[in-house]
Design a protein that fits this description.
This protein is mainly β and about 200 residues long. It is built from 4 helices and 11 strands, in the order βββαββαββαββββα. About 35% of the residues are buried. The structure holds ligand MTE and molybdenum atom (MO). The site of the ligand Nc1nc2c(c(=O)[nH]1)N[C@H]1C(S)=C(S)[C@@H](COP(=O)(O)O)O[C@H]1N2 has 18 residues, from loops. Molybdenum atom (MO) binds next to loops.
Length: about 200
């Protein structure tokens, strides 16, 4: 079998947030392709920093150890890449955005969030969508440390959106009043990125 399996899929199944398990136009893969634009940063956890700025009452910088002291969650979810492959039922471990925000002082004017990453990648989402209960900063996949090519030591993952909405090597969040396009959003990918509506480009 090649990279993509075209086995028949049961389109009656739904996922945990009520959407069909298999979004239109996606193939199942058991491999985990790497999609990186540009360099692959090399970050060790001892040097890793995660900064929160913009419309917050206090700028905060977390070290790795501080981030690990936040509540840790394991979650089964599916990963949809805009280039039409999807991975199903991996277990993702890390810190939920909803747990992170509990220790932040976000200004009520903040309506949008920019994820920033080592290497300069960015991606934007409305704060309301970041607050979905499955948006997670991942350091562990299926019990193993997240591989460097996949964003290790830490990446963001937004299961309800195409995967470019999660920054690999994530190192910060910027809270904003107005929306601003991130890297792929400036280069033709959809701003909203809903796999069930096939919002791939704009
Ligand atoms: N920092 C960074 N994050 C990124 C990307 C990237 O190029 N750089 N690519 C995005 C895209 S387009 C996808 S599909 C996923 C791919 O994740 P993977 O390489 O682990 O499969 O990461 C997203 N996050
Ligand atoms: Mo992608």
């Amino acid at each position: 079998m090649g990279l993509f399996s075209k086995d028949p899929i049961d389109s009656n199944e739904s996922n945990y947030f009520g959407k069909p398990k298999y979004p239109p136009g996606q193939y199942i893969t058991k491999k985990f392709p790497v999609l990186t634009y540009g360099v692959t940063p090399k970050i060790v956890t001892a040097d890793w920093k995660f900064k929160v700025w913009g419309l917050v009452d206090e700028i905060v910088t977390f070290t790795w150890d501080e981030f690990m002291k936040l509540p840790q969650t394991q979650m089964k979810a599916d990963f949809h890449c805009v280039t039409t492959w999807s991975r199903y039922d991996d277990t993702w471990g890390g810190v939920l955005f909803t747990d992170l925000v509990k220790v932040l002082k976000i200004n009520p004017e903040a309506k949008h969030v920019m994820q920033h990453a080592y290497g300069g990648y960015t991606t934007n989402l409305p704060l309301e969508w970041m607050l979905k209960e499955d948006v997670i900063f991942v350091h562990t996949v299926n019990g193993e440390p997240l591989e460097r090519d996949h964003g290790g030591p830490m990446r963001a993952f937004t299961p309800r959106r195409y995967a470019w909405k999660g920054a690999k090597w994530v190192n910060g969040l910027e809270f904003m009043k107005d929306d601003r396009p991130g890297f792929w959003e400036q280069n033709g990918y959809s701003n909203t990125a809903d796999p069930w509506k096939e919002e791939r480009t704009w």
